[in-house]
Amino acid sequence: MSIEFDNNLPIYLQIMNFIKKEIVTGKLKAGDKIPSVRELAAELQINPNTVQRTFQELEREEVVETRRGLGRYVTSEEAKIMTIKKEMAGDLLDNFINGMQELGFSNKDIATIVAEAVEIKSE
């Protein structure tokens, strides 16, 4: 696992986003075991408390679940994983649309540009 940390965003959030991305892209599958706090802290060379906070937040969001004595696992709820995927897509779209609007494009122009780009990608 390799993450290039951005100094402008808390590390625990960056790790959360990375793990969520690994889940929605299928690199981590529903029910897969995730590394322990110690393993991940050593691998990323960060404080174990940061990893612990990451896992607590992921548990609070029901992205991972703790099985007593066995460790933490990716949720087995496919609907939850799809919800995470849609949230991530929404964030990407918001950033894209905001950026395009800052460049002066109208919503109609943005829709046209996206439709053309999708058509080119599908060829």
Automatic annotation (TrEMBL):
Q: Which SMART domains match?
A: HTH_GNTR
List residues of the HTH gntR-type domain: 9-77
InterPro entries hit by this protein: Tscrpt_reg_HTH_GntR (IPR000524), WH-like_DNA-bd_sf (IPR036388), WH_DNA-bd_sf (IPR036390)
Fetch the SUPFAM superfamilies from UniProt: Winged helix' DNA-binding domain
Q: Which UniProt keywords apply?
A: DNA-binding, Transcription, Transcription regulation
PANTHER family given for it? Answer: GNTR-FAMILY TRANSCRIPTIONAL REGULATOR, HTH-TYPE TRANSCRIPTIONAL REPRESSOR YTRA
Keyword set includes Transcription regulation: yes
Q: Name one Pfam family in it.
A: GntR
- Which Gene Ontology molecular function entries are recorded, alphabetically? DNA binding; DNA-binding transcription factor activity
**What CDD domains does the entry give?**
WHTH_GntR (cd07377)
Taxon lineage: Bacteria, Bacillati, Bacillota, Bacilli, Bacillales
Superkingdom of the source species: Bacteria
UniProt name for this protein: GntR family transcriptional regulator
